[in-house]
Amino acid sequence: MEATALSVGKSVLSGALSYAKSFVAEEVALQLGVQRDHVFITDELEMMRSFLMAAHGDQDDNMVVRTWVNQVRNVSYAVEDCLHDFAVRLQKQSWWRIPRTLLDRRCVAKQMKELRIKVEDVSQRNQRYHLIKGSSSKPTSIVGQPTISSTTMSAADDARLLRQKAKMDLVKLINCKEGALRVIALWGTSSSDLGELSIIRSAYEDPMIHKNFDCCAWITLMCPFNQTYFIRSIIRQIYVNSLQETGEEGKSVIGAHVLRMMATMKEDGLTHEFKRYLNFKSYLIVLNGIHTIEEWDCIKTCFPSNKKGSRIIVSTEKVEVASLCIGAEDEALVHKKLFVDRSLYAFYSKVSQEGSNSEEKGSTSYVTRSVVNNSAHKNILTRMETMATLEESRLIGRGNEKEEIIRLISNKDLQQFHVFSLWGMGGIGKTTLVSDIYQSQEISSMFGKRACVTVMRPFNSAALLESLIMQFRDKNEDTEEIDLRRCLEGKRYLLVLDDLWSIGEWDAIKQYLPETAASCIIVTTREENIAKHCSKDERNIYPLHHLGPDDARALFTKKVFKEAVSLDERYPELVEPTKLILKKCRGLPLALVTIGGFLANQPKTAFEWRKMNEHISAEMEMNPELETIKAILMKSYDGLPYYLKACFLYLAIFPEDQQIARRRLVRRWIAESYSSEVRGMSVEEVLDSYFMKLISRSMILPSQRTICSRKGVDSCHVHDLIREIAISKSMEENLVFTLEEGCNLNNQGIVRHLAVSSNWKGYQCEFENIVDLSRVRSLTVFGNWSSFYISDKMRLLRVLDLEGEWDLVDHHLHHIGKLVHLRYLSVRGHVGIRHLPNSLGNLRQLQTLDISGTRITKLPRAIIKLVKMQGILASGRQWTSHGVEMPRGIWKLKALHPLRVVDVSVGKTILQDIKMLTRLRKLGVTGINQRNSQELCSAIACLSSLESLSLHSHSLSGCLDGLSSPPENLQSLKLIGNLVKLPEWIQELKNLVKLKLERSRISEHDAAIQAFGNLPNLAKPGHPTSIGLLVRW
């Protein structure tokens, strides 16, 4: 998976390159006489981007490559900032008078030369150190890095020491003082690897081991598995070993006649006799090369559990087989890394305290994790940790979901082939739930063939198909001669594909699976769009949501106290700290179980629990018992493409529990140049799709949907634990810094986005010294306003977002005109704001102006200078129906697409201006009356791109009849005011999906309802997708 530095570097570089290649930048370079430097810089940036796009994810973990990527990012910022600054200064005619002075040109030329040197230097470092080669299919080693051929004797000695330590760890597991039969499953990258097998062999041949067991055997399994041959191989080894231990073959061996008899027995009764023989002995059996759990199911029936301290060691290449061989449902599954260089892991069930040795006594369920170099192994282990962690959540809070899915699968009316998709964020319990369903008696009895497989990273279709064949085949079939489709043809089968990550993975698997009648495939995934691709029937798509408050509390308390406990009665002092922890977990089973398990072994005091809640981010970083949470959630983050990572990290700006409006977020992304037009889609449409992709991937969660939401989601929030990842990663890359109570007041250097929390009470000197304000691109204030927040040093500020506070007044904005790079300005909700300063006209880059909820009734005439303006949002507060009076000449703002709410009661000129804004997609109008209604209808008819129209007046009766040809693309219509009769033209709106009528007094109800029924795309009340029709008579 691609790490953060590489993703952020790609995103920043793409933005800089996009602007450098734009017509505006080229024209500025031409006018300033620096076109040669501009061309060189653009070409170098393009080459750097090619290198970054060719980089591998694991190269980002190399510190030298990471340093170079950070340098590329910083120089990309510098290029974009410099070119933007030239463009802005060129527009200031008072400074750049014609003819421009030689001194001015020299100043620009000097800056471009310095920038060119920086770009050239960074570019040459890649070539100098051979960091990333675009033509290479594999990561290139760093010059000077030791190779295999230069390995020293010291390294060889270290390897021997590591093998010796691994052997001793395995010996300790085998010699653990526990009477019950214990299975130890060993999983490594390859069971034929001499390094791994030598560890197992040396432990097996240790004299101390053989002294503790009556009989021992080492068996390499043959394929296909033959139980009779298997037992006879063990018998022969036990017999030979017994002879060797006596020192001479002629000497009597205890039980030798029994072994000889069994060696010649027929299949009937052999297994029974073998088990009877072993029942009175302590035995050690090593099984090398188990491939499927079905093989293990046959093997385990051959061995008695005789309470004599016997051990079975299973060696396998498949992590799922290793974990399932343990099969201890009532004990904690543990995996422990034995060998660092060759990822060798031991899986075993945690022994009881009574039977443990001194090393394990008093221990609790734990997972020992180390750095795994191979990403596939890392993903596998993380998944195993999730399954083990969520084991105890199986019976709490998911009963209804389990019953519903089983009902759908077992529905006798559904005799066709079906694919069921279960989707939800990481840690939500998909794997646990589908495992319960797969193992349930109701389901297992319905299908002749069954298989369950986790799709591993990186995806390997051949390995996955081999695993499916091994599970689906009959016991006596040769796997090399089996075709999966032929094996399943005509058979009713159940297949579980757990953890799909892409549509391509599904397509690669699906072609080998026949659509046999009444067969069923269950898919789990983190992405909604993948779930929809796999299951074409919406009824078979099942989103898994967070646990409700009661279930979350029950799961948490059971994990902490090992039983159902009433906190109010037994631990009243823990009630409030529990609420804080549950709020942080927000119904995520993984977090509830993991944190609950950790607190189970801590003092049960309010102080300890509050401390946990306050330091949850640090605990996830440093506490081995809690890092599973971050590992699972990080998988979702790591799976994001680089352009979505940049958008996601931007969310670290917003405080905990913040409801973030979609429009606010998307318009800020536009101001930050997070995308450009793509294949005919506007920038807003592209970034809207990014927003929905983040929701589809459960990185952001939709807030409550309302009937007024045409896209289905008007706002979102971020899960507290996901937000911790955004904060952590954005701080690593110097993207976001938040001034808040208790924050680090040391100089943070260059930070691109600055947020001021509501609890920060600092002074101007702190504000100006903590970060380099000259590089800040966005300032978001959530607390009380201070005049020093608008600083002359913020010469590159693009976003000033002051939404939501109540203490801002007119004079606080007097110096706003100094922020000449500003693209987004929001004073939304500040009732103290009544006027905007004339200096607003200096903001020639401004794209969005949001003054909704203020008391502004008239915009200054200077606004018509802002030709880059794309959106003016000026709806009044709920206690007033007045809009905002626009100055004459608003037609010059050709790029406007949302414009609301305009007060047209003052004259007809504004309607003539609106008529010329042909790019308008959203329009809100108030002040409609009989005198201006004809001009209004004429203006609306000319707005062919209009998608949303809101008309507000005390009385709309008779004012809308003059509209003969409404915009055919209109999708949303709001009519607020006294309306006696529905306009005839409404029936022509075939693309209308949302209609809101408020304060209407329509007399002909039946005719109105019939008109609604003739609109094909309008959602109706009571319909499952009803989001469109709201009528208040």
UniProtKB/TrEMBL annotation:
One Pfam family recorded for the sequence: WHD_DRP
Record domain Disease resistance protein winged helix: where: 653-726
Recorded superkingdom: Eukaryota
Classification via SUPFAM superfamilies: L domain-like (SSF52058), P-loop containing nucleoside triphosphate hydrolases (SSF52540)
Annotated Disease resistance R13L4/SHOC-2-like LRR domain residues: 776-1018
An example Gene Ontology molecular-function term: ADP binding
The Disease resistance N-terminal domain, residue ranges: 12-95
Gene Ontology annotations of biological process type: defense response to bacterium; innate immune response-activating signaling pathway; plant-type hypersensitive response
NB-ARC domain boundaries: 177-353, 402-564
Coiled-coil zones: none
InterPro entries tied to this protein: Apaf_helical (IPR042197), Disease_R_plants (IPR044974), LRR_dom_sf (IPR032675), LRR_R13L4/SHOC2-like (IPR055414), NB-ARC (IPR002182), P-loop_NTPase (IPR027417), RX-like_CC (IPR038005), Rx_N (IPR041118)
Family that this chain belongs to: Belongs to the disease resistance NB-LRR family.
Name assigned to this protein: Uncharacterized protein
